[in-house]
Amino acid sequence: MPQSPRTGRKGDVLAVVSQSGPTVSFFDAASDRHLGHVQVPAEPHELCFDATHRLLWCTLTYQSGYYHANGGRRTDLAVIDPDTRRVVEIVDIGPEHGPHGLAPDPARGRIYVSVEGAANRPGGVVVIDTATRRPVGRIDTDAPGPHWFAIDPAGTTGYATNKEAPFVSVVDLERGVLTSKVEVPGSEGLAVSADGTHVFVAAPYADFSAAEGRPTTGIRIIDARTSSVVDTLPTEDVVLPVHLTSTGKLLAGEVRMAADPGSALGHHAPGRLTVFAADTREQVGELEVGLFPLTVTSSPDGRLAYVACAVSSTVDVVDLETLDRLARLDIAKLGEAGAHGLAYLPRPA
Q1: Integer Cα distance of 67 and 71 in angstroms
Q2: Does residue 6 belong to any structural domain of this protein?
Q3: pTM, to two decimals
Q4: Residues 235-267: tens digit of each pLDDT
Q5: 8 located within any domain
Q6: Whole-angstrom Cα distance, residue 170 to residue 245?
Q7: For residue 141, what are the contacts with CB-CB under 8 A and spacing of at least 6?
Q8: Would the N or C end of the chain have less CB density within 10 A of its end CB?
């Protein structure tokens, strides 16, 4: 029977972090039915699926709060069995702290984790062996707060975005060294093209208190061969998450604020999912989503997008062919709050 274009594949699962839960919830990708959740330690942020060992990795970033306004940085990650929905291990990477971004390299059996700096060391990327679940290396990024991290398809080059530092850190994953800095005005999410030739970076850093004189909001395109910005895709509002689908669509989550006489920052308005064609760099559409889109992912076939919105604590399921919202997963109704990290888990072979 042909698969309906309005659902995910039967047996696939979507995992969703509730940052303030703190939990990871699981949903049937075909029906959007809630399957259950697993409790994790405080302030989970991002997710990464290790298909080789069929385990889900989750960064535990702070004791409480968020970037630059937290009750202390954590030093661990939770490893979760998504099929039994249980935590199988808490991996301590101390003295490294503030883990956030995750990038898998299944060919080499590694996961890369971005970590914040300390008084005696800059921020960096911790290299974890997925077989032993232990750190096997560290790469400095020469910036205090690397947040998102992505690698090229070859697994040889990594890119760390830095919120306040005015550059993207480029690292050689084979030699474990920083090789260059690409000038951008602070940065958020990023994605690497399927052929590894370009990197798409959200910039500037989402500092809503500094709207006056802020650089053009949008996505900077970095030429990987020259480590330089070659183009900018402008957006109306600040972009946080950036994601590339398997079909070459570039997805950007824009955070929107509305004027409020009682607040200098205003209040949250519905966010926007903006879609570009990565090859032509043309905008092909947009769609209103929940409040404060923070993470975006897609189904392996590139038909569906999932947009986690932290303030509304929702996940919008979007048909990328029609740009219709097919469903809204209401994480808040489950008694959770702060939808954040996402992972799409194909059914077991």
Answers
A1: 10
A2: no
A3: 0.95
A4: 999 999 999 999 999 999 999 988 666 554 557
A5: no
A6: 22
A7: 114, 122, 123, 124, 125, 160, 162, 169, 171, 178
A8: N
| DSSP structural state of residue 36 | E
Q: Is 2 part of any domain?
A: no
DSSP calls for 302-347: SSEEEEEETTTTEEEEEETTTTEEEEEEEGGGGT---EEEEEEEPP
* Domain housing 182: 13-28+36-345
Of the candidates 147, 152, 158, the residue with the CA atom closest to the CA atom of residue 45 = 147
CA 14 to chain centre: 14
CATH number at 115 reads 2.130.10.10
Phi, psi at residue 262, to the nearest 5°?
-90, 0
Query: What are the tens digits of pLDDT across the range 27-80?
Result: 999 999 999 999 999 999 999 999 999 999 999 999 998 787 888 999 999 999
Could you give the CA distance from residue 276 to residue 323 in angstroms, rounded to a whole number?
12
Residue 97 lies in a domain: yes
Q: Which residue has the tokens 């030739």?
A: 197
Q: Based on the structure, what is the number of domains in the chain?
A: 1
